[in-house]
Amino acid sequence: MSPPRPTVRWELLERHLEEAEFLWTQWEHGLWSPELTLSSLAEGDEGRLRAHLDALVLGGSAAATRLLLPALTSEDPARVASAAWALLSAEDADWREPVFQQLEQGAEETHPGLLRALELLDRPDLHALLLKKLPTLQPTLQAGALRVARVRHLDTSAALEKLDWEADPALHAEALRALPFAPRTQTGEARLSRALGHAHPTVSTAALETGLLLGSREAWEHARGSSSRGALLALAVAGEPKDLAGLLARLKDGSAPAEVIWAVGFSGRLPTAEALLPLLRDEAQGPLAAASFAAITGLPLVPPFLVEAPTDEDEDAEEEAEPEAEDLQARLPSPRVLPGEVDAQAVETWWTQRRGGFTEGARLLRGTPLTVEVLVRALETEPMRRRPSLAWEAALRGGGTLQVESRQWTRVQREQALPLRGQRPEWLARAGSWPQGRRGDIPA
Questions:
Q1: Of all helices (H) and strands (E), which one includes residue 341?
Q2: Disulfide check for 139: which of 168, 271, 287, 390 has CB 3.0–4.6 Å away?
Q3: Which letter does DSSP use for residue 64 in this model?
Q4: Bridge partners for 342 per DSSP
């Protein structure tokens, strides 16, 4: 006589799915948090999310059939992503067919969640299947599939040859962003060069950022006239002295947008810190300027220098809201810091007392001379919202090959950062690797 089958506790499994849905959204938000670090996110929302996902996997085929498959049609991306991740992680059954069927034939609203799950799954067989299907998908889905491949650092050159890049701006952009992970070809260089002048900003921005990663001289020239986030950061951290001087001139004329204030904080230069000081007295720009100033000098962003501003319930709710769709797709998050009121006089007094202790010409991070070791440590300890910009610099230095995906699981991010540890000191003075457009050494 066979033993009785264990009773399935449906209310418990349903709770696991509800908690996974909630924590998935919280975790996505945490990846761009101005307060959390990699460790606090890993030990907090990510750890709890993974526990609930694992519980759904352990629920087996019964949970898959009754809860997870219906959840694939949800209008909530986090619920779809949680269900798809659990289904594709199953150990007692193969659920690839219904998941991919939903991707190919299901409602468009479910695509972001399905694709996000594929980005986060360490399943080469699934990614190979996705690339095989890629040419048969609709252009918008092709763009999403290419994004999955890029986040997984896959070579998509075979698929790219079969696609009509011009069919959709998002597809064109993702095809360009895939180039760093494909063999260098003259065709790829020509496509990139043409796309720099594309009429659609999504395409031209993707071409610019990819060209910067690959060291294209043409892209660097375009960057000097661009206001894109990636271009500003590249000019601040790896441009020529005249490039940083141009950014600082924008600070001094009083009309600098938040993107410029944010970018120059990654330059690490003392003249930048001093150019930021006058902005501390501006009520609107003060907190962001203080954050950039602190990133260079090591100013503690605590009282008496920064006092937390009072917030009402509506503002608190806005802070905890789900990240905007743009953020969820972006390589680099928009400028944002914790709210507060800056005491400019206290900061200026602090700076007067410490200015003489810094070496002229040094590049600093939190008041410490920037080295490879310091940059690697910063990827572990800096607030999550600042880390993608640091990872962007590492990608620039490595010609697009040393990319830390800031929207991956924290364990994956740490693994991707390991090769940075072996870089020589001069690595921090180089950018780009495209053979025909190599910039070579960047002036310190």
A1: strand 341-342
A2: 168
A3: I
A4: 306
- Residue 2 is classified by DSSP as P
Q: Pick the residue with more confidence: 258 or 433? A: 258
Residue 360 backbone dihedrals phi, psi, to 5 degrees: -60, 140
User: 402: Cβ–Cβ under 8 A, 6 or more apart, which residues?
Assistant: 394, 395, 419, 420, 423
For residues 168 and 141, the answer to whether their CB atoms sit within 8 Å is: no
- Distance separating the N- and C-terminal Cα atoms of the chain: 78
Per the CB < 8 A criterion, the answer to whether 208 and 217 are in contact is no
Encoding tokens for residue 341? 């009121």
- Compute CA distances 58 → 65, 82, 319, whole Å: 13, 14, 34
- Take residue 269 and report the two structure tokens written for it: 């230069």
Count Cα neighbours of 194 within 13 Å in the Cβ-side half-sphere: 10
Strand partners, 364: 369
Answer whether 428's CB lies under 8 Å from 394's CB.
no
Q: Do residues 288 and 262 lie in contact, with contact meaning Cβ atoms separated by under 8 Å?
A: yes
How many whole angstroms separate alpha carbon 409 and alpha carbon 406? 8
What's the CA gap between 348 and 414, in Å, rounded? 37
Q: Which range, of 152-156, 248-252, 370-374, 386-390, averages the lowest pLDDT? A: 248-252
Cβ neighbours of residue 4 closer than 8 Å, sequence gap 6 or more? none
- Look up residue 248 and give its two tokens: 């600082």
Question: Considering the entire predicted model, what is its pTM?
Answer: 0.91
**Beta strand ranges found along 358-422 (DSSP E):** 364-365, 368-369
Sign of CA dihedral 310, 315, 321, 325: negative
Amino acid at 389: S
- Residue 166's pLDDT is 95
The answer to whether 377 touches 35, Cβ cutoff 8 Å, is: no
- The DSSP 8-state label assigned to residue 199 in this structure reads S
Question: CA nearest 394: which of 384, 406, 403, 407?
Answer: 403
Written as six digits, the tokens of 339 are 């709210």
Taking the C-alpha atoms of residue 201 and residue 212, their distance in angstroms, rounded to an integer, is 16
Radius of gyration of the chain (CA): 23
Integer Cα distance of 48 and 68 in angstroms: 19
